[in-house]
Automatic annotation (TrEMBL):
Residues 722-732, 746-762 have a biased composition (Basic and acidic residues). InterPro entries: ARM-type_fold, EVH1_PP4R3, P4R3-like_central_dom, PH-like_dom_sf, PP4R3-like. It comes from Gorilla gorilla gorilla. Residues 143-644 form the Serine/threonine-protein phosphatase 4 regulatory subunit 3-like central domain. It comes from the Eukaryota. Residues 766-776 have a biased composition (Low complexity). This is Protein phosphatase 4 regulatory subunit 3C. Residues 6-102 form the PP4R3 EVH1-like domain. GO terms for cellular component: nucleoplasm; protein phosphatase 4 complex.
Length: 822
């Protein structure tokens, strides 16, 4: 085979471990007199000079890779690569090398790996993975496409090497020249290869390559290559759209040519990103990250250039605020400003601050206020989007502007009330503008982004302002839709005219969602408003709506209220019997297992799990007879169990209390006698048998019998002594009846002062005595007593026994609620 010549490229590894192209020439294997053996000789195609002369020693390791590469090391860090244009030529030269070394040509390396040092084998591996591109010609497009595609799944070093070759060898312009050739020849196969090549280069994710591809000279050809997707029957005409259909409008003439060029480039890049690669896979998304960053950087540069041109921005706002500006012109200005706000998201925080300060000085908020009340839907929608951008970035500055208006505007002209009005009056069937404006209100009302300083609290200041000047405007649609003129909750008649049209239902749902948010974050303000306006009762009227999503919004509104476990809300719900519409909705839903069913059951289940006692009692007493038939969940049985446990616990507490009070010494007569008995109890507890002298033994025996539990009747009402004592207790007078023995009175008084401030019993209007104690007589006898006040009857009247029996019946048999209307 000596004398055969094949076209080959020669690469050498330099000292910086970079591959240098020595040139292209013809290779042959010949006997070399200088080496006294076979050698590889490569002569240049251009001038016939010798590019490479390399001896083939019998012990040098060679390797053949990718069917077109032969690699070896001649010295340390001096690697050589032969890149063949024809795989057949590579195979022939490989056979010559194997023949000289006595190896089988079917092997990939001419040396046994186990016989070589590890570092030599690693060097061979590095050379074998070298990325080399063939000449950029029509007949090599398939090889180029294979290399570019395969490198995407290779280590990052291979992608770096390929990017370096594409940049340094001006490969991309050569590929784009071939694109024009293929189009002129209608070479469909070549165009499909070019699509794969350009797409692969984009996925290399290298900014240095993007600078070349997206330059004014190359970008349209790149778009042209991407038109020929092999998966499409016919190519897409993206260039026609960008050239003829896409029109660039200068709302204000742009004199900066660099700015204009940057705007054109960014638009085309965004088109490539969004249209040509619309839905990248999870893998391709990372490949396009640098393209996204490139676009992001372009947008930031555009905003910075515009921000520096104060004359340009001043003219934009002047025309926006001018009442004589035509609606079409105003719409164009707003769309420009909308794009500017969108691009500003690419700015760093400090640059955003500067931009917002500039816009504020130019009067952006008054300008928005003017355009938001225009009749043109496009103008209002664009203004809503711009407002959302501004509020999202600096809600505190917007709040400051809103509050400052209160001194110069009436409520209906406030900027925030203009926003609310536009939200309510949105004519879009899908309420696109209303959704944007609801986001604005949500951000403004979110306490988490409100500032608090030692000087002032933005939260209290703004919320006070909003609930005073704006809340009635915001809830107006809800109150109007649920007024008595339209719906009546008492009858809960579905024939009533509750809002059933889709647009109104969507608006009410938005309002309820924001009110639900307010319940969570505006505890005091929203609670006062709800209770004063009876808002939950009115919202529950919407349970009649045919729109399930609106009913679910009402349930979320009520659920958020309940989850606060606020007794003010709980009492409001109980007194208003506001669970009735919810129960009726559950019954009307029947056996259907849907979102409504789950939401209502979850509401009751939450009450059961959290054991909200007041609500548990109310639900069981009012609705258990109606709901006990629902057995596919254990919620209502669980509520009944909770209710009965609580009732038994309260009953046991009452029994313990009565048991304790029966052991308390019942006193008769005046306060002096009460003090005397307290002294006795105190002395007995101290282990001393000291009794004060008594003048009347009979009276002492009677007192003793009273201590032993005998029922002693108190004196009748006409007893002067008792009446005087009663008047003393009721009127709070420090009046004591005369005592026969002053010494005994002083002894009793000293005993009382020695006690731990035991309060004397007070007579109630019903003839009972009320004890208020922290350390009472029951503590002295070793029995427990609940803290606070308790009432014990000292006289067992027959009428009282009848009342007790009636109370007992009421306690054991809760009042039954008539069957609810279904």
């Amino acid at each position: 085979m000596a004398g055969l010549r094949y076209s080959v490229k020669v690469y050498v590894l330099n000292g910086e471990e970079e591959w240098n192209n020595l040139g292209t020439g013809q290779i042959s294997s010949t006997y070399d007199e200088q080496f006294q053996g076979m050698s590889l000789l490569v002569r240049s195609d251009s001038d016939g000079s010798v590019i490479l002369r390399s001896q083939i020693p019998p012990d040098r390791p060679y390797g053949k890779y990718q069917e077109t590469l032969i690699v070896w090391y001649e010295a340390e860090n001096q690697g050589l690569v032969l890149k063949f244009q024809d795989p057949a030529g590579c195979q022939d030269i490989w056979k010559e090398i194997c023949q000289v070394q006595g190896k089988d040509p079917s092997i990939q390396t001419t040396v046994n790996i186990s016989d070589e040092p590890e570092e030599d084998f690693n060097e061979m591996s590095v050379i074998s993975n070298t990325v080399l591109l063939p000449d950029c010609e029509l007949n090599t497009l398939d090889q180029i496409a294979d290399i570019v595609t395969s490198v995407l799944s290779s280590p990052i070093t291979d992608r770096e090497r390929l990017a370096e070759i594409l940049k340094n060898e001006a490969y991309i312009p050569k590929l784009l020249q071939l694109f024009h050739t293929c189009e002129n020849l209608e070479n469909t196969e070549g165009l499909h290869h070019l699509y794969e090549i350009i797409k692969g280069i984009l996925f290399l994710n290298k900014a240095c390559l993007f600078e070349i591809m997206f330059s004014d000279e190359c970008i349209m050809d790149v778009v042209g290559c991407l038109e020929y997707d092999p998966a499409l029957d016919q190519p897409k005409r993206h260039r026609d759209f960008l050239t003829n259909d896409a029109k660039f409008k200068e709302v204000i003439p742009i004199t900066n040519s660099e700015l204009r060029q940057k705007i054109h480039q960014t638009y085309r890049l965004q088109y490539i990103h969004d249209i040509l690669f619309p839905v990248p896979s999870i893998f391709e998304d990372n490949f396009l990250s640098t393209l996204t960053t490139f676009i992001f950087s372009n947008k930031a540069e555009i905003v910075s250039m515009l921000q520096k041109d104060h004359k340009f921005l001043y003219e934009v706002f002047a025309q926006l605020k001018d009442e004589t500006t035509h609606d079409d012109r105003r719409c164009e200005l707003l769309f420009f400003f909308k794009e500017l706000c969108s691009f500003s998201q690419a700015l760093q925080p400090q640059s955003k601050d500067t931009l917002f300060e500039t816009l504020t000085q130019l009067g952006v908020l008054p300008a928005l206020k003017i355009v938001m009340i225009r009749d043109d839907l496009q103008v209002r929608s664009a203004a809503a989007v711009i407002c959302a951008y501004l509020v999202e970035y600096s809600p505190s500055r917007i709040r400051e502007f809103i509050i400052s208006e209160a001194h110069v505007c009436k409520d209906s002209d406030l900027f925030i009330n203009v926003i609310i009005k536009q939200m309510i009056c949105d004519t879009d069937p899908e309420l696109g503008g209303a959704v944007h404006l609801m986001v604005v209100l949500h951000t403004l009302l979110d306490p988490r982004n409100m500032l608090t300083t030692p000087e002032k609290s933005e939260r209290s200041e703004f919320l006070h302002f909003f609930y005073k000047h704006c809340m009635h405007k915001f809830t107006e649609p809800l109150l109007a839709a649920t007024s008595e003129h339209n719906c009546d909750i008492a009858g809960y008649d579905k024939s009533k005219n509750c809002p059933n049209d889709n647009q109104t239902a969507q608006l009410l749902a938005l309002i309820l969602e924001l009110l639900t948010f307010c319940i969570q974050h505006h505890t005091f303000y929203i609670r006062s408003y709800i209770l004063n306006k009876d808002l939950l009762r009115k919202a529950l009227i919407l349970m009649n709506s045919k729109h399930t999503h609106l009913i679910l919004c009402v349930l979320r509104f009520m659920r958020r209220m309940i989850c606060l476990n606020d007794e003010a809300y709980n009492n409001y719900i109980i007194k208003g019997n506001l669970f009735e519409p919810v129960v009726n909705a559950l019954l009307d839903n029947g056996t259907r297992y849907n979102m409504l069913n789950s939401a209502i059951l979850e509401l009751f289940e939450y009450i059961r799990v959290e054991n909200i006692k007041s609500l548990v009692s109310h639900i069981v007493e009012k609705f258990y007879n109606t709901l006990e038939s629902i057995e596919y969940v254990q919620t209502f049985k669980g509520l009944k169990i909770k209710y009965e446990k609580e009732r038994d616990r309260q009953s046991q507490i009452q029994k313990n209390l009565h048991s304790v009070l029966r052991n308390i010494v019942v006193f008769r007569g005046t306060i002096e006698e009460v003090g005397l008995e307290e002294e006795i109890c105190f002395m007995e507890d101290a282990g001393e048998a000291v009794m004060p002298p008594l003048e009347d033994d009979d009276e002492f025996m009677e007192t003793k019998r009273t201590q032993e539990g005998e029922a002693v009747m108190p004196p009748l009402e006409d007893d002067d002594k008792f009446t005087e004592t009663k008047r003393t207790h009721q009127e709070g007078e420090a009046v004591m009846p005369p005592l026969e023995d002053d010494d005994e009175f002083m002894e009793t008084k000293r005993t009382q002062e020695h006690e731990d401030k035991v309060d004397s019993p007070k007579r109630t209007s019903s003839g009972d005595f009320k004890f208020s104690s922290s350390y009472s007589a029951c503590a002295a006898i070793g029995t427990g007593s609940p803290s606070g006040s308790s009432v014990v009857r000292l006289v067992d009247h027959p009428d009282d026994e009848e009342e007790k029996e009636e109370d007992k019946e009421d306690e054991t048999s809760p009042k039954k609620k008539p069957h609810l209307s279904s």
